[in-house]
Amino acid sequence: MKRLLLISNSISYGKGYLDHCEDAIMNFLGEIRSLLFIPYALYDLDNYFSTVEKRFGKMGIKTSPIHNADPLEAIKKAKGFFVGGGNTFRLLKKMNDSELIKPMRDAVLNGIPYIGISAGINLASPTIKTTNDMPIVFPGSLDALNLISFQINPHYIDPDPSSTHKGETREQRIKEFHEENDTPVIGLYEGSWIRAENDSITIEGKKGAKLFRKGEKPILLKNGPIVL
Amino acid sequence: MKRLLLISNSISYGKGYLDHCEDAIMNFLGEIRSLLFIPYALYDLDNYFSTVEKRFGKMGIKTSPIHNADPLEAIKKAKGFFVGGGNTFRLLKKMNDSELIKPMRDAVLNGIPYIGISAGINLASPTIKTTNDMPIVFPGSLDALNLISFQINPHYIDPDPSSTHKGETREQRIKEFHEENDTPVIGLYEGSWIRAENDSITIEGKKGAKLFRKGEKPILLKNGPIVL
Description:
Two copies of one chain form a homodimer.
Chain A: E1 3-7, H1 22-29, E2 34-38, H2 45-58, E3 62-65, H3 71-77, E4 81-83, H4 88-97, H5 101-109, E5 114-117, H6 119-124, E6 151-156, H7 170-180, E7 185-189, E8 192-197, E9 200-205, E10 209-212, E11 219-221, E12 224-226
Parallel strand pairs in A: 1-5, 2-3, 2-4, 4-5, 6-7
Antiparallel strand pairs in A: 1-8, 7-10, 8-9, 9-12, 10-11
């Protein structure tokens, strides 16, 4: 009994915060009307909470921020988790410093639903090794909540054939990951999300995803259930 | 007595490997005709060395690869270092695993010239916290050679005003770095390099650079000496 909603991005081009995924969040939450919010990926925690509180309030969902509570108690009492985007290294460092990885993992394995966006989906992965973020702080380890059996790369974007920039493309970066690791990677386009319920994994949203396996050509994933 | 040539990128659009910076490398090396090559940022070390050996051979420079030697002895005997690009986390992990950070730092502080490109300039910085690379392996620490007093972001690129992608821009990532760190960051455009000789720092090449200081607006740096 494990339920996760893993969303590539919180703002889609031309839309407001969470607008593109509001229906998916409401559908995923069902009867649940309160969430514990984990804002650690951003620097200004109170400001972040203010945005989140208003936006979820409009949806009839009460949010409470972990940084204004005893974090361990808050995790134990939570009816659902919302882990927001920002910098993944900062998020993981605060989770590690406060020893929250195991309690949160246990809670989700016991059926507490988990909504993660961007950095929040890197945190749900086995490791944060497929984040796009700059390593602005040292998190002590790259191991994350390990709630799914694959890695996700949020904000996935295909190479731009007209680009003259010679930095690595996202595809090249994921190939580098597979030079050193075996775990499959789902590159999740902006506008897409993954619903993972027990062993069932479904791609939903606007644009699908791309599956990268070590040593194989990437495969385009359309919306619907997938088998990894 | 400390000499570094720190090059943003090894291939410029439409040119071959090292073509855009060949003159700068020759000028920097002066009478030196042999380099110890550090290929650890890429996966296939022998293949990487083959490319480097040929390219430097055309310039009359003999290169020898650290991975075919006793690395500590090779560092002690080197007349100059060339640290090539690739994945910075992989590069730093191999340097840490082999305990090469201190010996290499000592050699450069004793006057052995250092040429670094891309990941090789992240390695010369105080930390690798301003790399663009994916954290595909855990390097044990983010501390690097600390041969300069500032951070460099290689392959620096300005935000694209026409983009509909909502992932962080490079400027936003460097701003996140300054939420957690104080060190100035030089965003080095592709085609540019920095010559650092003792306390003298000079921007050279095609396009200049951008200086980011904590809490201040970024400043465009033209070619020429700069004071940090």
